[in-house]
Every structure is written in structure tokens, then in C-alpha cells.
Amino acid sequence: MITKQLLEHIEGEASVYFDIKDDKVDFATITFPHFRGMESILKGKNALDALVITPRVCGICGHAHLMAAVRAIEDAYKNAGFEIKLTQKAQKIREFTLIMEMIQNHFKWLYMVIIPELVKLISIKLEKTPLKGAYAASLSAKAIAVFGGQWPHSSYMIPGGVTSDPTFIEIMQARSQLEELIKFFEKETLGISLDKFLTLESCKDFNGFSSDLTNLEKGLIETGMHTKGFAKDQFIVLGEHGFTNSSKLKGTRTFGINSKYVSDTDAYSPQEITYAKNALYKNEYYEAGPLGRMLSQSVPLIKNMHRRYKDSAYSRVMARVFEIGYLLEYSKILLDNFDIDEDSVVTVTDIKQISATGIGVVEAPRGPLLHKIELKNGMISQYHITTPTQFNIGSSTPQTPTPVQQAMQGLAKKDALFIFRTFDVCSVCTTH
Amino acid sequence: MHSKKDNKKKLLWLQGVTCNGNTHSFLNLPYLPLLLSKIELLYFPTMEALYTFEEISECKLSCDILVFEGAFDPELKRNDILIQTMLEHYSKNAEYVIAVGSCASFGGIFKASAPQRNSGLLFNESERTGPMLEVDQKIINLSGCPIHPEWLGYTLNMIINHQKILLDEMHRPRELYSNLAHHGCTRNEYFEWKVDAKGFGLKEGCLFYEQGCRGPMTHASCNKILWNEVSSKTRSGTPCFGCTEPDFPKQNFFNTKTNMSIPEDVPLGVPKRNYLTMAGIAKTFHIKRLEGKLIDYKTTP
Asked: Which among A38, A131, A347 is the nearest to B33, CB-wise?
């Protein structure tokens, strides 16, 4: 018999239809029931309006949408013969604010979703402290606002650079938010210094101290999450940034990748209308997000974790927490190497001159986000968005399961529900 | 279960057609833990509260403060229950219905996806034709895309402290919306002397003349109560897009609409002819200090 389960607290809602046989999930399909029509809203508008409208796709990763939109427009400039060369300063500011958005997302996911859900399954003591997540996220948001004016829904990236012109005092403000965030992460999450955390090489190293992180790790082991939740063991990283290597991974082996091979297909949802589409790379399903990103960077701890526990729910969760530390460290480097003399924006040709297509790809918190734009005399004739959750939480047939469908298969329903959340689902992005 | 002894206000947060932006903005409130300690959270979209959504959607409970985020769509269902049914049920006994964000207030960005159907709770853009006319006296509109966290913090604290909230004709608290986004803008001197920003990426110049800034026409305290405690759109060189007004979203956000190089919209409450005369005089001044960069790191020794 197929039973419906409503999932909340996942950036919107989803329904999972479980087919249970012998108390185990035989198969599950996923429905995203809400739709907003962002792509049609954009049609017929000035290309620059995408910089205001697309951040409104999502309240938690709108900044990633802004960056994908500006990159798509800049790519259209390039394809029309007007290549734009950003200054290092503009690039670094954009990267810094993107990273801060990723970090706020990961903190909220950890403290508002993963820990409360894990607590339901375990016997060891793990305190639910959702407001820790909100506090850390608010520090990240402040750091974004220093450059971007506000968060959520900033629109401060424009073709050629950024609208802000930070002075030293603003860089110091951002640096001070970052220091505060690192202190919080060390004291409240890790229980050890960030430097030490980043040098950990094995899962055994978690035994030496006690903190939210180690309690989380114990909980994952207690629930057997290191032996459950295996997906495809193949990953994609598409966004080009200083903190990633865009690549396709099969296990830990890396291969080249090109975003032109991304396609989408209608989701399979026999019980209810869904507005989701599945995203594929060369017609195959891949997992997207922090685990793939950290493997692509050959982070020793994550490689070791993968050797022991493969792409289990354990590895997926721990990689996302590790990525917070990794990105905090990278943010310091960005802010410390900032040439304030450079221009914030370079002059670009009037958008009305641009008739071309463009693609903008970024790594959003949950994985690759792609915006494709088609411009005629600077006006949008087509706009197409592919989001990370479409890669991870697709809903396909039993013959070709998506990463999440595969990860839930053969498990008790309560485990499957937790594993669903380990992918950090964004329903609002999916049904843009 | 509800604790009766402390008599805290019960708050329920429902969502219509939304991006979750207001939820996430609210989570940035600096005194969030203190505020949440003063209320009883029945349901909240991103974190556990007293009840699950399944329990809430049965419409058997009641709340004192109903917060609604997102545009109203009469056909929208959550957990197979029409959101309209939930709104009708929970607004019946609520003391206040707070529409958070421009979608819930006026239709906002998600009115555009279904213009004939979607609206705000009380207003459809600026027309008073929303679905909740029957309880209009309870409705507080906190427009903005998204809502500024401290605007909701203020409203909830006023309610908790039993203080009367003065509203404007669009049901927005006067304390928050009698200001214009222009107030407190660091570019005001450039506005006074009609000095345009030469482009983006600059601290200098006013964004009203060329870059589409709606600051002088927009009721919002973004430059008085700073975003995330540190900044605002105009401070970071981005024009104000007028996101608190019923006509948001307009088009061509980064361009000022002009007729014969005169801005089509002039600052709120100023007769156009007088404004143009005054602007013409101001433009004749050449204030050297406003002509170059404020700080030139390249040339200053």
C-alpha cells in the first residue's frame, strides 16, 4: 500500500509517497505541490530586472540566484562579442557574499532541521537549539549586508561588478562579523579551534572531544547512518569558484564537466500533480552539494570518511558541517587579499545592444544552480532555471531512481525520512 | 499543549504563495530569542513549534496573532486544505492578522504569476478588494520584499505590550512607514544639489536621477532602521526598488523613467512644477566637493 507523508521544515513542503513492503521502503516518489511561475514572470522584461526578480525565487539562497542571473547576463554579453572582465575586487566581494549565504544555510539546516530530526531517533543526549542556527545565520547575513546592503533579497551584483564601493571600515566590519562567526562555530559547534578542526584526518579524531559536532556524529553512528542512505556515489560540481573544482566524480575519481550537458525532465509523480522537474547530467542522475564539493577538493577528512562510509547519510551530513569550516577559512583569505584601489564595476555596453543567449552557473548551498537566459535587444525572451534540489530530490521511476529515491530504498520509514532531509531540500527553489 | 499560567500570546505563522524570504528575514532579528520567550509559537515554517502542520491544518486550534506570509491564492492548498479555509478559521478568534511582506500585503511579486487570482489579504495592489475584508480591522500590513526583521519585531512587541499601533491608510504602522526610504540615505546631499551618480559601484552621487531609485517615493524606514543592523540598498549603491509600495514590482528597476529628461515621478508630496524650478536652481550650483570621489585611495598619499 502506498502511504503519503507530508514533509515540513524543508524550505517549503513536499509529500513523499512510500510504498512499504515488509516494513521497509520498497520505493518512494516525491511531490512538490506548489508553483510560482518565476520563469514566465521574467519573460518580456529588461534583462537587468532578472537581478531583482530572481533573488525572490528563494528566501534562503536568493543571493545564489542573483549571482547565477548576473553570470548568465555576463555570458550573454560575451556571446554577443562584448566580453566583460571583472576586477579581482568585484569577484572577491561576490564570492565572499555567496559563501556567507552558504554558511547561513548550513547553520540553519544543522540546528533547525538535522539535530531536531536526529533527536527523535536517538537515545544519547543531543540538545535541540534551533536558535543557535538563527544566531549564526544572522552573523553571516550581516557580513553579506556590509557589501550587499541587505539579506535576504539583495540585488547588488550588476553586469560588470557590484554596486557597492566598500571602504576599509566596511571590510573591517565584515572581518569582525567573520571573526564572531568563527568564534561561535568553535565554541558552540566544534568544541575545538577551527584550525584544529580543519586538520582532522579521520572520523576517529572525533573521539577526542565533546561538542554539538561530536554528539551529532555519535547520533549518526547510533542510528547506523554510516551504513544507510547510500545514493549514486557519483557527484557533480558545476559552479566555478575559488573554493571549488568544477568536476564530475565517480566515487573519488574526478572527470571534466560541462554545464551544456545538463538537461531536465518531468518528475514522476503518479499520485499527485507535482511542479518539479528532475535535473540530469548526460542523462544520468548525480548527487550535488557539499559532499561532492569536498571530495572534489580532496579534503583529507572527507576522503577518509568516504573510504570508510562511502556516500552514506553520515558522510553527507558531516561533509556539510565540514564545509562550514572550510568556507570560513576561505573567507578569511578573501577578505585579507582585497585591493581596495580597484574599481567595483567596469563599464559595459548598454544591455539594449545584447541579443544572445547566456548561462550562469554557481554553486549554491545545496549544489549547482543554473540560469539560462535568452536576450533580444536586452529584453528577456526565455529564462530557464535549474536548481540543486532538482538534481538530488528528483522523482523518477523504479528503473531509474534519483539520488534521494535510491538513498531511501530498503530502509525503515523513519530512517528514510531523516535521510530525505540530509540532502537539505529546497522546495521553493525546485518549484520556481 | 498550551501553558495557561503565563498567558502568552499564541502565534501561528501560515504561508501562501511565497519564497520563504520573510521567514528567513525574521530569523535575523537581533533579539529573536527574547521575543520568542514572550510568545507561544504554535507553528513556524522553518523550525519545530508546538504543533505540526498536519495538526494546524485540521483547523481545531486557535491563535491570538496570525502571521501570513506570501500572496493569497484562493486555489492554494497546503496539506490538501485550502489556505483560505485555514485563514478564515484562524482569523476568527485572532486579535491581529499580520500580513508579512509585500505579497501578503498587496500581492507583490507572486501576484505576477497569477494576476487574476492572487492578491494580498486586504489589498489587491492598492485596491481594497482582498479576501479578508470582513476582518479588516485586525489586519496589519508589513509590506516589504522581504519584510525588515525589526518591523515585525516592533509590531509583535507592541501587541505583547498591549500598545496601540497607529496605522496608515494601507494598514501599515505609521511608526515604520511614515518615513521614506530616502530618510537617512547617505546620498541625500547629492539629492539636494541634483548631482547624479555617474554609474554604479560608487559611494558618490544620487541614484534617483538615472539609476531608478524610488527612495523619495517609498514609505519605508530602511535607512533609519538599517538592514541586518549594518546597511541598506542605497548605502550599498543599489537603488531602492520601492518594494514596500502596492505597485511593486514595477519594471526597468535600474532606470529612472523620464519625460524629456525630467523624472516622471518626483518626490512624494512635492508639486512637479515647483520641484523642477527648485531642481533647476540647485543644478546651477557647482559644489566642488560633490564633483569628485570622496576618498580616492589611488591618488591620496
From this structure: A131
Residue A148 placed within a domain: yes
> Is A271 an 8 Å CB contact of chain B?
no
Residue A306 contacts residue A275 (beta carbons within 8 Å): no
Q: Is B185 annotated as a binding residue?
A: yes
Structural domain containing residue A110:
2-423
Indicate the DSSP class of residue A187: I
Question: Is ipTM strictly over 0.90?
Answer: yes
Task: Classify A371 as helix, strand or coil.
Answer: strand
Residue B18 contacts A where some CB pair is shorter than 8 Å:
yes
**Structural domain count, chain A:** 1
Q: What is the dihedral of CA A156, A157, A161, A164, to 10 degrees?
A: 10
* Chain length of chain A: 432
Q: Answer yes or no: are the C-beta atoms of B276 and B262 closer than 8 Å.
A: yes
CA distance A69 to A66: 5
Distance from CA of A262 to the nearest CA of B (A): 25
Q: A198: burial class by Cβ within 10 Å (0-12, 13-18, 19+)?
A: middle
Shortest CA distance from B111: residue in chain A = A36
Please check whether residue A428 lies inside any domain of the structure: no
- Strands of A239-305, DSSP E: 247-250, 253-255, 262-266, 277-281, 287-288
Closest CA to A329 of A197, A241, A189: A197
Tell me whether residues B146 and A59 touch, CB distance under 8 A.
yes
Tell whether residue A58 is among the known ligand binding residues: yes
A89-140 confidence digits (pLDDT tens): 999 999 999 999 999 999 999 999 999 999 999 987 889 999 999 999 999 9
- CB burial of residue A342 (10 Å; 0-12, 13-18, 19+): middle
pLDDT per residue as tens digits for the range B142-173: 999 999 999 999 999 999 999 999 999 999 99
State the nearest Cα–Cα gap between A393 and chain B, in angstroms: 18
Q: Is A203 annotated as a binding residue?
A: no
Mean of pLDDT values over A382-404: 97
- Does A403 map to a domain? yes
- How much is the pLDDT for A391? 97
Distance (Å, whole) CA A70 – CA A68: 6
CB of B131 within 8 Å of a chain A CB? The answer is no
Give this prediction's pTM. Answer: 0.97
Looking up residue A373, the CATH number of its domain turns out to be 1.10.645.10
- Grid cell in block for residue B283: 543644478
- Across B249-276, b (16+ Cβ under 10 Å) vs e yields bbeebbebeeeeeebeebeeeeeeeeee
Confidence grade of residue B300 (pLDDT, cut at 50, 70, 90): low
Closest to A141 (Cβ–Cβ): which among B23, B28, B253?
B28
* Separation of first and last alpha carbons in chain A: 31
For residue A129, give Cα distances in angstroms to A111, A138, A210, A272, A406: 6, 15, 16, 35, 31
* Domains and their CATH numbers in chain B: 9-176 (3.40.50.700), 179-292 (4.10.480.10)
Whether B92 has a pLDDT exceeding 90, the answer reads yes
Q: CA-CA distance, A428 to A5, in Å (whole number)? A: 18
